[in-house]
Amino acid sequence: MDTNITKLFSIQHPIIQGGMIWNSGWRLASAVSNAGGLGLIGAGSMYPDVLRTHIQQCQQATSQPFGVNVPMLYPDLEEIMQIIVEEKVKIVFTSAGNPKTWTEILKKEGIKVAHVVSSTKFAQKCEEAGVDAVVAEGFEAGGHNGRDETTTLCLIPHVKQHLSIPLIAAGGIATGAQMLAAFALGADGVQLGSRFAATQESSASALFKDEIIKAQEGDTMLTLKELAPVRLLKNDFFNEVQAAYQAGQTKEQLIELLGRGRAKKGMFEGDLIHGELEIGQVSALIHSIPTVAEVFDELLADYEVARQRLFNQL
C-alpha cells in the first residue's frame, strides 16, 4: 500500500504501532518497524535515562524508521526532548498537550511530528502548529482518551473534511477489515494499540496479555474524566472507582484513590486486582498473543480478503 503516510515516514505499510505506556519498549517498536510499519517507543512510562537506552537498543535492532511517542503531561519533558534530539530520532508523536509547544523546535531538528487528538477542533490546531500528520483517535481506544466520546466512525470523516495534511485513524482498529474501513473514511494510515499490546514482543506482563485475550464485548469502560479520561478493563480497582462516583467523592478524593503507579502495577507488574488495565474496546476481537510478524501477516491477508469482498459486492 502506497499512501501519504508511507511516503511521509518512508515505511512499507501504513500501519503504526501506538506508543503505549508499559507496552511499547524497543523490542516491540523494532519488531513493528522490521515488519514494514512504524514502531513507536512509549516514552510516557520511561525515565529519561531509560528512554535513551531504549532508543539506542532500537537503533541496533532495526535499520528501518521508528519513532518515540511523548505524552506531554508527563514530567522531565525537556530532558526527554533533548535526548530525542541527541539520539537523532527522526519521528516523534506527541499527545496530551499543546502541539505548538514543541512542534517548531522538533521540526528545526529535522524531526517529523505527528500529534494525537480526539476532535476536529484540535486537529485543526495541529495543522496550524505545523505538524506533519494528525492521529485522530476515537472513543473506542484504550488508555487515555478524549472526553467527548466521539467514535472513530464519526471522527475520521469529520476530521478529513477539515484537514489538508495526512490523517492517521486510531481507536478500535485491530483487523485488516477495520483498516480498510478506516481508509474508506479518509484515513491515510492506521494506528493500532491494543492489537500490538497482546504480542510476544510487547513489554507488558504476560498476566495482562492474558486478560486482553479473555476480554469480551463490554468489558472495558472510559472513566476518571475529571482527571484524565482513561479506558480500563473492569477489575476490582475499576469497581472501586465506580463506587467512589456513587458515593459522590470529590476530584481530590479520586486523585487520592488513584494514587501513583497504578498503570505500572497493572500492565507491567501484572496486578490484575489493584492495577489500571488500559486497553481498547477492540480487545474483544483479540484471541491470541502472536509475534508482531504474524500480526502483520494476518492484518494484510485480512485486508485483502475484505477488499475483495467489498469489490465483489459493488
Query: Tally of extended strands?
Result: 11
**Which CATH-level-2 architecture of the domain at 4-203?**
Alpha-Beta Barrel
CATH topology of the domain at 4-203: TIM Barrel
Range of strand content: 5-15%
The SSE order reads HEHEHEHEHEHEEHEHEHHEEHHHH
Which radius of gyration do the C-alpha atoms yield? 18 Å
Mean pLDDT, to the nearest integer, reads: 96
Query: How does the overall form come out from the CA principal axes?
Result: globular
* Spans where pLDDT lies below 50 across 5 or more residues: none
Largest sheet: 8 strands, parallel
As a percent range, the share of helical residues equals 40-55%
CATH superfamily of the domain at 4-203: Aldolase class I
How many helical elements? 14
Overview of this protein structure:
With 314 residues, the protein is of the alpha/beta class. The protein has a domain of 200 residues: Aldolase class I (TIM Barrel), CATH 3.20.20.70. The strands form 2 sheets. An 8-stranded parallel β-sheet has the order 1-9-8-6-5-4-3-2. It starts with a helix and ends with a helix.
Question: Key terms for this structure?
Answer:
single chain, 314 residues, eight-stranded parallel sheet, 11 strands, 15% strand
